[in-house]
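Handoff note, outgoing to incoming analyst
You'll be picking up this chain. Sequence as last confirmed:
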Amino acid sequence: MRTIFFSLLLIYSSILIAQKNVSAPMDFYIEEEVVPAILSVVSNTLQFVDQDHNNVIDANEACMIRFQVINTGKGDGYGCVARTTFAGNTKGIAISDVHLPVLAAGSKQWVEIPIAANASTETGEIALNIVVDEPNGFGTEKIEYIIGTHQLKTPFVSVVSYKVHGTASGTLERRKQFILQVIVQNTDQGIAENVKVGMNLPANVMRTGGDMENVSIVSLQAGESRLLEYELIANQEAAEKMDIQIALSEKQGKYAENASIPLEFGQHIGGSIAMNVQRQDHEVEIKRASLISAVDENIPETNAKNSNTFVVIIANENYQSVASVPYALNDGKIFREYCIKTLGIPEKQIKFIPNATGNQIKAQINWLQTLAEVFTDPHIIFYYAGHGIPDESSRTAYLLPVDGIGTDVSTGYKLDDLYAVLGKMPAENVTVFMDACFSGSRREEGMLASARGVAIRAKSGMPQGNMVVFSAAQNDETAYPNNEEKHGMFTYFLLKKLQETKGDVTLHELGEYIKTNVSQQSILLNGKSQTPCVIPSASLSASWKEWTLK
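Most recent structure output, in case you need it:
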């Protein structure tokens, strides 16, 4: 038995030794089969999403890039990551990697990559490279994307225009209620939120109605404006000059500017004044809101002195017994400003008579006569805005003073008489601007004086001496207002040409410009004809065409 046992032990030992000496190539390893996910971007699914839908990454805006990924492989996608690198105007821009959930074989999945922009973001663009990595190297092809960036858009709230009106006299007086209109506007690109408008009145000035002294506005978009109207009155103790303070604020506390509105008793009212706008971003076109026309501001100024020119301006708007003439006071007021600033005529040589009576008109004509006799070869300018009336039987034209009666021509000032007096003056030249019609119609719809209710083809009068007359309308036409510009149509284009040329324009060029533009705009805006004309006196040669007002 012992012999058998040792024999078996020897055999077992031999087997162990043989196994230990077997070389490596004799070993066998079975590797696990790999079935990867294969990723690609689904066509036409790439999108950029931003909050204000302007396709730009704005400062302080949250955006995202989103697209669909499809797994066309046989295996599920584990551990896939969307990775983004970017270059360009990257200041203030943050983009993080996005880890995807398991993407099953044959399935699609939306990938959303958030983009955060802070207040330091700059205007420009960034270039993005996006890939979705798959652990086995079967991720998507690279996505290249360029997106614009924009610096912080801030609002700016200010008072851009104001207007005082409401008294019958046309001047600001104590113990007479007046209306102050104010336009508050956001003149920059950002949204102004929680806007507060407050009013601080000087001593002895009180609010009697209209908007409250403290107004809240939820928001103002870029360029958006709000018209506020205050009814005010001053007692006898009010100071001669008074400043009304408008306090403005908005949510962020730094993008609004207070305004001071200076008023003075005795000043003519009815016109409007534009306030300075300190900031305006031209990226989005912002048209400043205004209670005034574009020709009422930015009036060109000259250093030249037109010391031998004398001017009478009659602006009749508020009539005692007939309808008013819209914007006539503003016509005369702004024409006076152009005479002073653009034509260089000294203020003391200009007589501006708002709402002139018959006697006041005659007195100003006498003033011109006196001056023409003591100055050598003066230049005379006569401007009239108001009603004209016809004599129904003779068709003779008359200016109508504010105390005149529309059906009684004896209360008017005969146009032929005006031309005769001006024409006999020893003046080098006389220029007449007549923003009136003599057909019996009004600036607005309807008739003024004609008992038959139809427009009359009145005689336009004959200029005399060294005289050229610019007339707003012919025959039975109406001299219309331009409601958008708050002027008579004729006066608006007269002022506009003086503004564009800084007053350096011949009478012929001025007449052609007024005729063309008034004729076109009257048809567009009113649907009716208005044809201005220039009438030189019969004794003048063509030399008048080269005359200028400066």
